[in-house]
């Protein structure tokens, strides 16, 4: 990493991150799970409730398979195939579009989801731990933790990394087709203006309440973690009544199809997915990536092991395998996100990886990124998300 950059000090400093475990009571998390479509009886989620205790990882023989429930297209196929070739277990990857979807699945399963590894965003982890949705690591089986940059360890949601470790972190912006939108777009206000004009009926937004609701508050340079009912109602009215009629899709992964195929003109996107779309496009110069001001999101997704994981040995082995230096780099190159490994920026530049400015950010850019805080408004936010999708006919 160049000497002139100091993003590791700026990335969500610990003193600036609220102690999330204090911010949500169990009751509030129950409400989130319920609105997400799960059951409120999270106490029944613990593995082994009403049945045999879940197996624990002790360093024994690896099972024949491992199942990963994660974000879409989030692991290098080379890493996945090498894991099976080197260590044996077959890997099954299933995807979700939001943390709410992940939590609903785990809540409903009550510890019998069949998934071994999950990849929640950090802000959700304390309540997942409290409610028995995750299993504590056996860190003796994760020696490759030593390859992770300390700046991405010990986050406020899991200070000792007992249940989670950085899988990738990134931000939210948008991509637009310069052949259709010929003016420069630079802010979230520009995004919404273009959505109602040049890109009307050809605009997609993430299928994720954080990004959708966040974009309104970022556009207006307001606290996106607000609990003010009047501000949330103004957000709802704008997104549902003004913006929804112009939205053609809610797509968390436009880089997979929409950008390469040119099916949309304006797309909200996470930086790594947008980068994937540009690298896969036959005409990357057609597209413009924007890290919009004045404020946008910072998020970190984390490896974790689900409660009741049927293959805990293989789960630990896959996470550890993914944290080797060579596999960290393969995943960085493939998914286009910073994966938290040591000294990777210069390696990426030297390797000629394209669009490294969409992976590594300047101190000034990092300073514009803010983390989400879960609070009592989460139920309202999910309701706005659902209402907007319904109004758009999605």
Molecular structure report:
This protein is 36% helix and 15% strand. The chain contains 16 helices and eleven strands. Helix 9 (229-243) packs parallel to helix 16 (378-392). The longest helix is centred in the middle third of the chain and has 15 residues, at 229-243. The chain is globular and about 60 Å long.
State the gist of this model.
With 394 residues, the protein is α/β, with parallel strands linked by helices. The chain has helices at 7-10, 20-23, 26-35, 77-87, 99-109, 125-130, 188-195, 209-219, 229-243, 258-261, 271-280, 312-322, 325-335, 345-350, 363-367, 378-392; strands at 65-71, 90-96, 117-118, 134-135, 164-177, 203-205, 247-250, 266-270, 287-290, 296-306, 369-370.
Topology:
Elements: H1 7-10, H2 20-23, H3 26-35, E1 65-71, H4 77-87, E2 90-96, H5 99-109, E3 117-118, H6 125-130, E4 134-135, E5 164-177, H7 188-195, E6 203-205, H8 209-219, H9 229-243, E7 247-250, H10 258-261, E8 266-270, H11 271-280, E9 287-290, E10 296-306, H12 312-322, H13 325-335, H14 345-350, H15 363-367, E11 369-370, H16 378-392
Features of this protein?
single chain, 394 residues, alpha/beta, eleven-stranded mixed sheet
Cα(first) to Cα(last) distance is: 43 Å
Q: Strand count, sense and closure of the main sheet?
A: 11 strands, mixed
What integer value in Å does the Rg equal?
20 Å
Helix content: 25-40%
Residue runs with pLDDT of under 50 for 5 or more positions = 1-50
Approximate strand percentage:
15-25%
Mean pLDDT: 87
What general outline do the C-alpha atoms trace?
A: globular
Number of helices: 16
Structural class: alpha/beta
Instruction: Spell out the helices and strands N to C.
Output: HHHEHEHEHEEHEHHEHEHEEHHHHEH
- Total count of strands: 11
């Amino acid at each position: 990493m160049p000497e002139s950059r100091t993003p590791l000090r700026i990335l969500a400093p610990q003193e600036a991150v609220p102690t999330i475990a204090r911010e949500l009571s169990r009751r509030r998390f129950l409400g989130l799970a319920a609105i997400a479509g799960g059951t409120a009886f999270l106490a029944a989620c613990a593995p082994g409730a009403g049945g045999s205790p879940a197996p624990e990882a002790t360093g024994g023989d690896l099972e024949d398979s491992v199942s990963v429930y994660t974000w879409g297209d989030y692991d290098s196929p080379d890493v996945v195939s090498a894991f099976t070739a080197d260590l044996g277990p077959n890997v099954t990857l299933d995807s979700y579009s939001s943390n709410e979807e992940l939590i609903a699945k785990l809540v409903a399963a009550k510890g019998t989801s069949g998934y071994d590894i999950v990849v929640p965003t950090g802000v959700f982890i304390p309540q997942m731990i409290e409610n028995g949705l995750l299993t504590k690591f056996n860190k003796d089986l994760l020696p490759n933790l030593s390859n992770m940059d300390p700046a991405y360890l010990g986050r406020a949601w899991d200070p000792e990394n007992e249940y989670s470790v950085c899988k990738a972190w990134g931000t939210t912006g948008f991509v637009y087709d310069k052949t259709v939108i010929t003016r420069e777009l630079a802010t979230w206000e520009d995004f919404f203006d273009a959505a109602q004009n040049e890109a009307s009926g050809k605009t997609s937004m993430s299928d994720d309440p954080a990004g959708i609701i966040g974009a309104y508050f970022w556009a207006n340079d307001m606290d996106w973690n607000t609990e003010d009912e009047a501000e949330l109602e103004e957000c709802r009215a704008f997104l549902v009544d003004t913006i929804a009629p112009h939205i053609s899709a809610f797509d968390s992964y436009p880089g997979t199809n929409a950008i390469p195929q040119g099916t949309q003109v304006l797309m909200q996107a996470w930086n790594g997915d947008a980068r994937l779309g540009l690298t896969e496009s036959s005409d990357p110069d057609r597209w413009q990536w924007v890290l919009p001001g004045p404020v946008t999101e910072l998020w970190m997704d984390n490896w974790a092991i689900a409660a009741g994981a049927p293959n805990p040995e293989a789960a630990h082995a896959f996470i550890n395998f993914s944290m080797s230096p060579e596999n960290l780099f393969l995943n960085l190159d493939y998914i286009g996100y910073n994966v938290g490994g040591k000294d990777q920026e210069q390696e990426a530049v030297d390797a000629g990886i394209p669009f490294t400015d969409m992976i590594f950010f300047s101190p000034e850019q990092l300073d514009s990124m803010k983390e989400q805080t879960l609070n009592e408004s989460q139920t309202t936010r999910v309701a706005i998300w659902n209402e907007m999708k319904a109004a758009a006919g999605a």
